[in-house]
Write a structure and sequence with these properties.
The protein is of the alpha+beta class. The protein contains five helices and four strands; from the N terminus they run αααβαββαβ. It has a four-stranded antiparallel sheet with strand order 2-3-1-4, covered by helices on one side. It is elongated. This is Lrp/AsnC family transcriptional regulator. InterPro entries: AsnC-type_HTH_dom (IPR000485), Dimeric_a/b-barrel (IPR011008), Tscrpt_reg_AsnC-like (IPR019888), Tscrpt_reg_AsnC/Lrp_C (IPR019887), WH-like_DNA-bd_sf (IPR036388), WH_DNA-bd_sf (IPR036390). Keywords: DNA-binding, Transcription, Transcription regulation.
Length: 152
C-alpha cells in the first residue's frame, strides 16, 4: 500500500488524538471530512491503523515502578514462545527480541518494588529463562505514543 504525505499527517494526528473528528483532521490536512474518513478506512483495511485505544497514565492507576529486564533464554527458544509467556504477566507492557547478548528485552510496570520483584520472579520462573538482568527506571525523560512525523 502506498502511504503519501497526507496519510502520514492523518496517522500522526490520530496518534496524537484518536478522538479527533474527521472534520478537525480534514482542516489540518486540507481535506473534507468524508475524504479523511475514506483514507482512514483504507488505512484500517490495509492494517496500517490497527485500532484506537486510550492511553492511561500509569501513575494514575498506581503503577509507578518500572524496569527493563533482559531475558537470557535456553537453547532454541523462539520469539513466539517469549511472546506467549510475556502475555501471561499483566505487568509486562512490552516485550522485544533484541540484538546483543540478551535474547529479549521486557518492559515491566508495577505498583512498587515488592510488586516488581514478584513480577520479576514469576517471569524468571518461565521454563526457558536461564537468567535476567534488570534496570529500574528512575524517571521517564521522553515518551511518545506514536510513529513518524510530528502532528504539529
Amino acid at each position: 500500500m502506498q502511504i503519501d504525505a497526507v496519510d502520514q499527517r492523518i496517522i500522526a494526528l490520530l496518534v496524537a488524538d484518536a478522538r479527533a473528528s474527521y472534520a478537525d483532521i480534514g482542516q489540518r490536512v486540507s481535506l473534507s471530512a468524508p475524504a479523511v474518513k475514506r483514507r482512514v478506512d483504507r488505512l484500517r483495511s490495509a492494517g496500517v491503523i490497527r485500532g484506537f485505544t486510550a492511553v492511561v497514565d500509569p501513575a494514575a492507576v498506581g503503577w509507578t515502578t518500572e524496569a527493563f529486564v533482559e531475558l537470557f533464554c535456553a537453547g532454541r527458544t523462539t520469539p513466539a514462545q517469549i511472546g506467549v509467556a510475556a502475555r501471561r504477566h499483566p505487568e509486562v507492557v512490552g516485550a522485544y527480541t533484541v540484538s546483543g547478548e540478551a535474547d529479549a528485552l521486557v518492559h515491566l510496570r508495577a505498583a512498587d518494588i515488592a510488586h516488581l520483584e514478584a513480577a520479576l520472579e514469576r517471569l524468571r520462573a518461565e521454563s526457558f529463562v536461564t537468567s535476567t538482568r534488570s534496570t529500574i527506571v528512575l524517571s521517564r525523560l521522553v515518551e511518545s505514543p506514536g510513529v513518524g512525523p510530528s502532528a504539529g
